[in-house]
């Protein structure tokens, strides 16, 4: 994991109904659809149903989504731990940092916090991310936090016009 000095302090917490507007805004931001598996807009009702029906138990849902707060209680982003495989003790990670907090070290702080959670609470052996070769900022962030590039997935992502290669990055905990 990356050296945490000078990184902002973050808190991972469960999603609350009060987070509906922020989640609605993020889920419907078309500019990030090509880096996620989302490709349709979500209604507020659909997101509220997700919040209400999620057990928040990674062993039941095979995923967990958490809000990320800074020391002032401001929501700086969302982190997803998905594709959880309990028999192999691994999961995929995805994070979104709100544009107004981007470039301030929050991404690295979140990756460190998730790694700590994955080790202490979930007892995972590894985390991985799949990142577009064009997403230089994310690639740099993951690599700064100890993730290693392990494979190239050819034409893995579709940006609406072209297929783009993606890199698999892994960290062993």
Keywords:
173 residues, alpha+beta, Aminopeptidase, seven-stranded mixed sheet, 5 helices
Roughly what fraction of the amino acids lie in strands? Answer: 25-35%
Radius of gyration: 16 Å
The SSE string, one letter per element, is EHHHEEEHEHEE
- Content-based structural category: alpha+beta
What is the helix tally?
5
CATH architecture of the domain at 11-128: 3-Layer(aba) Sandwich
Task: Name the shape in a single word.
Answer: globular
Top-tier CATH class of the domain at 11-128: Alpha Beta
Fraction of residues in helix: 25-40%
Strand order of the largest sheet: 1-2-3-4-5-7-6
Average per-residue pLDDT, rounded, comes to 89
According to DSSP, the number of beta strands is 7
CATH superfamily of the domain at 11-128: Gcn5-related N-acetyltransferase (GNAT)
What's the CATH topology name of the domain at 11-128?
Aminopeptidase
Spatial gap, N to C terminus: 9 Å
Low-confidence stretches: none
Largest sheet: 7 strands, mixed
Domain N-acetyltransferase: 10-170
Protein name: GNAT family N-acetyltransferase
Please provide a written account of the structure.
This protein is an alpha+beta fold. The protein has a domain at 11-128: Aminopeptidase (3-Layer(aba) Sandwich). The protein contains five helices and seven strands. It has helices at 20-27, 44-53, 58-61, 106-120, 136-144; strands spanning 11-14, 64-69, 75-85, 90-97, 126-132, 148-158, 163-172. The mean pLDDT is 89.
């Amino acid at each position: 994991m990356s050296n945490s000095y000078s990184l902002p302090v973050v808190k991972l917490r469960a999603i609350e109904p009060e987070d509906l507007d922020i989640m609605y805004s993020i889920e419907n931001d078309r500019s990030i659809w090509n880096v996620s598996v989302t490709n349709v807009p979500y209604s507020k009702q659909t997101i509220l149903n997700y919040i209400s029906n999620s057990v928040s138990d990674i062993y039941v849902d095979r995923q967990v989504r958490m809000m990320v707060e800074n020391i002032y209680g401001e929501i700086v982003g969302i982190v997803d731990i998905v594709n959880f495989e309990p028999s192999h003790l691994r999961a995929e990670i995805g994070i979104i940092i709100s544009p107004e907090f981007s470039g301030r070290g929050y991404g690295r702080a979140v990756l460190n916090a998730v790694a700590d959670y994955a080790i202490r609470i979930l007892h995972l052996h590894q985390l991985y991310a799949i990142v577009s070769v064009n997403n230089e900022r994310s690639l740099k962030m993951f690599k700064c936090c100890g993730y290693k590039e392990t494979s190239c997935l050819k034409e893995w992502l579709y940006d609406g016009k072209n297929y783009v290669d993606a890199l698999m990055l892994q960290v062993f905990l």
